[in-house]
Write the structure tokens for this entry.
Amino acid sequence: MSLVRFYLSNSREVLGLLGQHVLLVLVSTAIAVAIGVPVGILLTRRPSWRRPVLGLANVFQTIPSLALFGFLIPLPLLGGIGARTAIVALVVYALLPIVRNTYTGIVGIDPAIREAGRGMGMTDGELLRLVELPLAASVILAGIRVATVVGVGTATIAAAIGAGGLGVYIFRGVAVVDDRLILAGALPAALLALAADGLLGLVERRFAWR
Amino acid sequence: MGGWWSRLAAGMVLLSSCGHRERIIVGAKNFTESDLLAEIAAQQIERRTGLPVERKLHLGGTFVCHEAILAGQIDLYVEYTGTAYTAVLKHAPGPSADSITRAVADEYRNRWGLVWLPSFGFNNTFAIAVRQADAQRLGLQAISDLARVAPNWKAGFGYEFLNREDGFPGLARTYGLRFSTPPTAMDLGLTYRALADGKIDVIAGNSTDGQLDALHLVALADDRHYFPPYEAAPVVRGAVLERHPEVQRALAELAGKIDDATMRQLNAQADIEHRDLRAIAHDWLERTLP
């Protein structure tokens, strides 16, 4: 109940932080898709790159966020403090599920289908565009879905580098030992994650019909 | 029958009190300095009294340690007078150092039977810190000098400092501080890096933090005495001191032995040179109290 009162009396701040949070997740996931899907496709063409690239994405995943921020602060283009650094970190964390699912989705296609496409005289580009990507779409989307949902939670660390978001309430609550403040940040973040999951689940199911 | 039961009960009480008397449990909060001071206290008790000491270090924040000592889960830990005064006892900051120390000692004894022993001798206050190069170039020595350059500067503070009763809002009022943009809220540890790398120009660190020297930062003097004193001292359960007065005697030897610079060096040995806490405590004790 006191949480409701808190939201009512701080509605502008809450909406502002929520907006920042959504923006952080959207931008970082979009960039991660723009990098991760092509990289995943590339891996299906260059099997020997699979191990090192997925290994690297795995390693990225294990870097603690504060340590990552520490490394990023001095970097000229990617670093500093604020939203840019937070987005770089979020992209780094989102890459693994997207790259991995893109690769797995395409590799998992029945070789006979691919052969049939080749038999029809398709070029590699056509095969990718007309056969492989549509068939792998639901698996790739599942990866993007995981990355987004995890990203909503991870984006709370943006507050550690001055980038705002719902993490601000969590950090503030922890600092002054106020459970209500911690909840004020954690609860909407959890709801946001559920909403993102549901929405992308719908999209995923649509593609699964094809 | 009744006699048998009461004898059993008495025996159990005796047993449990014997079990308790066997060792002293030392707790600490979840940061280096607290762990280090707890280790120093633990080793001092071991070498002077021969009592076995159990360590429960890095427990959590102020409240975890406070609850633990009230529940008898730990027998002592190191607390700071200003923190006890504002955060535990919930008083508004303001009074002088002496009256805070006295008020804290009185209230802890009366309310919880906890005893504040004499302080180690340093004051771990908030350190409004800038780069040494800036301080030299612009002649900054005190926080009131900062007001002059602040309009062109960026500040970055930890969440605790931004939201504490004795934190930034009051500081800004006291010194008339206005920065070019509102201070960036970020993780305390990262503010040191961001300051050293020139991303921000002023931070609020801890005055005994080893990183200040290592990163060539300098703390400005609190010339208007805004911050309450945060003198570190062991807080011990009174019952333990009654059973073992030798513990009090052992810890009293530590009083006034660690000044700000010494604490910074000890912290630096742990945080920057990554030496083992036990070794740091052992070496310091051997040197200072042979």
